[in-house]
UniProtKB/TrEMBL annotation:
InterPro entries: NADH-Q_OxRdtase_suN/2, ND/Mrp_TM. It comes from the Bacteria. The gene is nuoN_3. This is NADH-quinone oxidoreductase subunit N. It comes from Nocardioides dokdonensis FR1436. HAMAP family: NDH1_NuoN_1 (MF_00445).
Length: 469
């Protein structure tokens, strides 16, 4: 493939990269009190990115730069979902971070982090995977560290330490697989691992998976997620619980497709999925801080996504189901954090007592988002979870399908506890202590929009599945 064709195939990613550089330069020459200009430019960059991404959807599948990056329907939908998420995040940042001395840097880090996620999700080469992992991780550390909360330094340090260790493990796994296959291309892993000693192949794959599980926020590399969600800006929390997971889960799916089909890797992913969803739900049951609750909730949601990935070798419907689930999870999870951004001082469940009387629209949006994460019709996650149970059963993983259903019922307990507080009678002292700050109308409108989007995507699940192949 020619250099021109490769550049054309990766045009959306290049738009984000050049846009991040432009925002960095513009921020350096813009007075601190006028950093909103950088946000406007970042928004225009994301719109241009979305335009090129949509154009890429109508083109046939291809590869770029010696088949190290694949542009197919999965990459195309990932681009669209990430682009839409970036627009939501930029609007949230305008409500929450406007006027901060490092406002422009936040926009640059969001664009660079998203670009790294796209590389991770679209690559079919171990070397590019390592580069994408680093590009997706370093901006994440910066976003958490820039947050103004008292817990931000500890959260950033914990995320960095676990991320650095996971990156080393991922690079070690890539090195082992390169040594066995004699190539960094995914296409050569099947033969390379099949001819290699079992222990060596297992070590390489497991090490690679551990690194990707950090980006996904899944067990066993999940300990940083609740602290990072609690200790950072809502904008940052929304980013780290949504965008990196999309690319990481898709990367795990691509890796699983490249491994020998008769191997035990689908079973390993299924076990990781079961543990992640169960640990996340059980931990969320005990949380009173709503951010930590959502942090543990996202860990459980990754478990459901990995359950679909485990079904890849055994079900043809698994791939479109995963792509639908990624889009459904993104819009629903962003809706939860948009609600938090609209009421930032309500950090504990008890603070939400009686909120339905004062802000019925916001509580309605929260209800749609939380019940959407459970999988309540007609939301998009409902369709995705029904299909998840179907594809895992079809792939011979009946026990995993049962666990998906059981964990879905278990998650109702903590989501309903939050909603019950919203509609209960307020305590006078609590009502006096917690007041919603003015000027968060954009976040509230985003919450309404995400709620509508979660329902609309559920109603339009058929066309989305057809687009996903």
């Amino acid at each position: 493939m020619s250099m021109t064709s490769s550049v054309t195939a990766l045009l959306p990613e290049l738009v984000l990269l050049l846009g991040a550089v432009l925002c960095l330069l513009l921020g350096s020459w813009t007075p601190r009190l006028r950093q909103h200009r950088v946000r406007v430019v970042a928004g225009l960059v994301v719109l241009a990115f979305l335009g090129t991404a949509v154009l890429g959807l109508v083109r046939p599948s291809t590869t770029a730069f010696s088949a190290t990056f694949t542009v197919d329907e999965a990459t195309g939908l990932l681009r669209v979902v990430v682009g839409a998420a970036l627009l939501v995040l930029l609007l949230l940042a305008g409500d929450e971070i406007a006027g901060h001395p490092r406002e422009s840097e936040v926009y640059v880090l969001l664009l660079l982090g998203a670009d790294g996620v796209l590389l991770v999700g679209g690559t079919t080469d171990l070397a590019v995977l390592v580069v994408g992992f680093l590009l997706a991780s370093i901006p994440l550390y910066g976003l958490i560290g820039l947050s103004t909360t008292a817990a931000a330094p500890e959260a950033a340090l914990k995320t960095y330490l676990i991320g650095a260790l996971s990156g080393i493990v991922l690079m070690l796994g890539a090195s082992v697989l390169f040594g066995l296959a004699g190539s960094t291309a995914y296409a050569d892993l099947d033969a390379g691992i099949g001819d290699a000693p079992v222990a060596a192949g297992a070590a390489g794959v497991v090490l690679l998976l551990v690194g990707l599980l950090f980006k996904a926020g899944a067990v066993p590399a999940h300990f940083w997620v609740p602290d990072a969600v609690q200790g950072s800006w809502v904008t940052t929390a929304a980013f780290l619980t949504t965008v990196p997971k999309l690319g990481a889960v898709l990367a795990i799916a691509r890796l699983l497709e490249a491994l020998p089909r008769e191997s035990v890797w689908p079973t390993l992913v299924a076990v990781l999925a079961a543990v992640s969803m169960t640990v996340g739900n059980l931990a969320a049951l005990t949380q009173d801080d709503v951010r930590r609750l959502l942090g543990w909730s996202t860990i459980s949601q990754v478990g459901y996504l990995l359950a679909v990935v485990a079904a890849f070798p055994g079900s043809e419907l698994a791939r479109p189901t995963l792509l639908l689930f990624l889009a459904a999870y993104a819009v629903t999870n962003l809706g939860c954090f948009a609600v938090l951004a609209a009421a930032p001082d309500r950090t504990r469940i008890d603070h939400w007592r009686g909120t339905a009387r004062r802000r019925p629209g916001l509580v309605a949006a929260l209800g749609v988002a939380l019940l959407g994460l459970v999988g309540t019709p007609p939301t998009a996650v409902f369709v995705a979870k029904v299909l998840t149970i179907a594809v895992t059963w079809d792939a011979g993983l009946a026990w995993l399908a049962v666990l998906v259903a059981a964990n879905t019922v278990l998650s109702l307990a903590y989501y309903l506890r939050w909603l019950a507080a919203c509609i209960s009678a307020p305590r006078e002292q609590a009502e006096a202590d917690v007041a919603d700050p003015p000027g968060r109308l954009t976040s509230a409108r985003l919450a309404y929009g995400c709620a509508v989007g979660a329902v609309a995507l559920g109603l339009a699940a058929g066309p989305v599945l057809a687009l996903a192949g």
